[in-house]
Structure formats: structure tokens, C-alpha cells
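Thread title: Can someone regenerate the structure for this chain?

I was given the following input by a collaborator and told the matching C-alpha cells would be attached. They weren't. Posting the sequence so someone can regenerate them.
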Amino acid sequence: MALATAILGFMTLHVAFVSEASIVQCSDRLLTVNTDPWDATSNKTIVVEARNGRAVLGYAGLAHIRGEPTSEWLVRKITAAKEPFTSFQFGGVSPVWLGDVRDRVIGGVEREFPSSQRVGRRQRLELMICGWGYPRRLRNSKRPTAFIWQLTHSGVQGARCKIRPTTRLRFRDPSRRWAIAGIGRADLLNCEAINQELLAESDPFGRDEVERSLVGAIRSVADLPGSRVGSDVMSVCLPALPPESPASFRFFRDTGVIDDRLGYTPALVSSRSVFPPAVMNSSQGFSAVFNADTPFEWEYTTETIPPWTQTGVRTLSVQMGKRYDP
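Best answer:
Regenerated them for you:
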């Protein structure tokens, strides 16, 4: 007699705003296992500085692959590493290209994800990759291109990843067009309300207005009974031209749930270094600058909202996810 298989739904939400001038992707940080809260401060976001572009990746679905937190598993696949990164690493990392990010993730998901499913229970996996692709030379006829890749795998052994049609927007500042996409509990997301809220801005809106709309949308879903979406939100902002405008991480903490005076950063991968997810006791002030004075220079700033008055020594330390052994 064949065993019935329960198909589990998503319990997280990623929302991306992609325009001709900038990209903002937000996600909740609550991780659940078997519908129960498992890790309230987990990392579901990975940022990649590739040789030919930059991207932010989020996932929804199975929280662990072969017992390893999915975010850490994805970092290993992107970098082709055999062991997880447990500390900040400078050097010793192979060059990463945008095509590597897509192809290595798809290959790893198709090989290893189905075998991580529990008998009688099957969960899909969704991934969203938003970013900028750079031409070999920046000039009027060859500008950076914003894109959205959305990948889905059913969890069935032997199945292939499905790739949804991608959004592509050529760089223009100020921007005249944008797209909004979501994965996970996107069925509860009101994209039209986000669009109308942004259109109602009297002045040209920027990152602050976009983040306010996206964070508000995620928290509205989190308030719905049974959504199992968290109210602490991680936001990543990727401008098109790194040397001219630093990218940023913003952690929006819900002080109505817990006020632990901590902030978080997502995993960060470049062609020369890897930063695992980190926890910081400072609400702002940390910044990372790599490959200074080279064509591949980039900088990230960190901030926690709402901020607080800093006392004592500021610290930034690696925070690994909780493993799961069924």
C-alpha cells in the first residue's frame, strides 16, 4: 500500500523591490521546524559580490538540508566548499560569478534536497535571487541590469528545478519602473497595496520609503493567524554602482516581542572572502570594505532599527544556525 505524503506549506516571507536604480530585499528571520518555532534569529539571506555583479538570495521551505541549516548549506554550494564557514575568512575563496551562483545552487538542490525529506512529509523549496549584472565596460550602451531569478523545487526525487521568467531592468537614475516579487507566504502578500503606497509618496521615494513599505507588509502577514511569519525583518539594499553608493544591511527589530539590544547581519560571500551570519551588540557603526582601491572594491554598512545608545565595547561575532537531527 502506498504511503500518503503530506505536502507542507511555507512559513516565511521574502519580498523584493527591484527598480532601475536600486534593489531592496526584505525577509523575516523566524525559522520553524515541523510548524513549531525553532530559531527566532536564524539567517535566511545570503549576499554575493560576484566578479560580474552582485546579488541577494533568499529561500523559503525546508529549514535544514541533511541536518545543516539551509542558509549555511547554500553558502557552501555557492563557494564549492566542503565544510561550513565558522569564522570570517579572508582569501582562499575561488572567484565567484553570477552564473556560478545560479548553477551551483540548482545542481545542489536537485542532487541533495529530495533526500533530505522525511518519510511521509514533503516540502518544496523556493529561492529568489535578485541582483545586478555588470557588463565588461560601463558606458551608455552597456549599463548594469537588474534581474530577478525565482527557482522552485518540488522535493520529489529526480525532479528538476523550475525557473520562473525573470525580470530585467536596465539601470536608470532616477528610476521610472520597478517590480515587486515574493516567495514563501507570498499568497498573503498584497503587492498592489505596496505599489499604491509608494506611488502616494509626494517626493521621489528612496530606500527608506521602500523599506518602510516592505517591512510593514511582512509584519502585516506576521499578524495574520497561522501565518508563522516572524516580525523581526532583515533588509538588504543593493545600489547599482558599488563605488558610488555603499550597500547596506538593516535589521528591523520588533521591540514589542523582545528587546535584546542585538542586531544581525546576513551571510556575505565575495570572490576573496566569506562572512558567515553575524550578531552585533551595536545598533550601527560597523562597515566592511574589501578590495580597497581596486576595480572590485565594495563596502557594506550595518544598522539596527530602532537604534539604541551604545555602551561598552562593540562586538561583531559569527552566529551559526541551529542544526537539526530528526
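The radius of gyration is 19 Å.
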